[in-house]
Structures are given as structure tokens and as C-alpha cells.
Fold this protein.
Amino acid sequence: MNEFELIAQLSRSLPGNASVIVGAGDDCAVLDSGQPGRYLLLKTDAVVQGVHFSATTEPERIGHKALGRCLSDIAAMAGRPIAALVTMALPTHFEAPFLQRIYDGMSLLAKRHGVAIVGGETTTNPERLLISVCVLGDVAADKCILRSGAEAGDALFVTGDLGGSLAGKHLEFEPRLAEARWLADHFAIHAMIDLSDGLAGDLRHLLRLSNGGAEILAGAIPISRAAKMQARTESSARTPLLAALSDGEDFELLFTVAGRVAVPLLDAWKKQFSKTRLSCIGKITSAPGLKLRDKTGLRPLEAHGYVHFS
């Protein structure tokens, strides 16, 4: 049983109540706020030493990543983060100044996006450091974007560059909160997801909830310089394209919009976010399955994203 099969099994029996608009399965849970026209967003995520960062990672970058992962999920719903709770599970031997620097990294990112850190919990975890963050946000009900709205004929877009995140980006990314809210305010975005498990994996998550398929263009995928450099220095068959498809932890936005507005969206984006690349990488299809088109033609995409266990 892999990570996503386990999640699906556990999610089938979760209790709900009248406040739940969207439960497990999307980037955030969506709840009725009690205020007309607004939803609450709830997200939790964790980083673990040896999995998401190393013992030598600068503590400020650990804190940035721990909070940033949740903020990226809030962005995927076009939401606004409000407050965060932080749980620290500490190894037997820890240094208080090191932990303070982790909080400094979180606080810097939180202040940049107007997020209050309002408390949390400390406990023990003898083997390694674990940090769990829960973020509360909100969004206008008519602007909330789910994974499930993609339609056949939609253009498929991705922000930024993909692949090679272990060269540093996975610790210093900037959540695309402003970009997501701008998209929701100016265009009818049908579906959106943040790229944490890799393009090939996260696109499959979106397609599964939207009951559709997709064709992506190999030549249109924005491959990062880090992924290209990695391919040159490593003696392996891992190509830059494969890295862009499957590396994970890019924390970019993948979204769909009606094909007829693809060009106007690109033009408007260039004026608003000139320093951030936006690429149209393919289209949503009515036929199921994920396919890649390259110089040899169209074929099923074999690459998958990151899975914590399988």
C-alpha cells in the first residue's frame, strides 16, 4: 500500500458535519465560516529531519519551509492565510537557540504574508526533529478554487520553473499567494493544485478529482536551471525533463482555464508578474489518462511524482 492508497482508505470513514464544504482530498479542507459569502480554509503539514531537511540545514530555512508548505496549499485554493499553530516534536538533545532560529525563519515568512503565529505545542520525539504546522485561512466562496473543476478543452498552466528543487528551492520558495488571488480575481480558474509531489504526480491528483485526462507538451515544460545543471553533473540517465516531471517540492501552481482565455491570461500575467514565468504546458482532455507529446509523437506518460512510501 502506498501513501495515497493509505490516505484514500483512511479518508473513507472520516466523520463530517454540516460545516464541511470540502473534506479530505483537496489542498485544504473548506469549511462554512458562518459568514455569508466566505469559507474557512484549514491545512496541516509536517516536516521531518532526514526527510524534508538535513541535520546541517540552516534553522531559519527549516522554519521557512515548515510554514511555507501550508501557505502554498492555501494559495492553491486562492485563499488568504490568517493564523498558524506550530507543534515541535523535539529529540532528546536539543538546543534552544537552534529552535529559536527556526521560529525566526517562520516569523519572517509569516510577517511577509500577514500571518499570526498564535501558539502550538511542544512534545518529544527521541530520534529526530519534527515540526507540524496548521494554518487557518479564508476565501470568498465564489473565488475558492478546487482540484475538481477541470474541463475538457481547458488550457493547462504552471508557474515558475520545475525540477532540481533539492539544489535549494525546496527550502527558500515563496508561496504563490498573491499570484493565486490575482488569478481568481481576474479569470475563471477551473481547477488548481500546488506542486509538492511533482508535476506528474500532482497533475494525476487533479485529473482524478476532475474525472478527465490531459496531454502535456514536453517542449513547453519549464525546466529549471538547477535540473539542467544536475543532469550535466550526474552520471545517470535522469534527464532534465524527468526531473521537472517528478522531483517534487517545486511549490508552484498548476491550474486550468478555458482555452479561449489562454492568450489574454498570458498577456495580463506578463504585465502583472513580469519576473515570474507562466507556461501553458498542455490541455485537459475528455479521454482519461495522462499523455506526453514530444518529437516522437504522443504516448502515455510513465513518470510519477514523489511518494513518501510505497
Q: What stands out?
A: The first strand starts at residue 20 and ends at 22. Residues 161 and 222 are 5 Å apart (CA to CA). Residues 154-300 form a domain with the Phosphoribosyl-aminoimidazole Synthetase; Chain A, domain 2 fold (CATH 3.90.650.10). The mean pLDDT is 95.
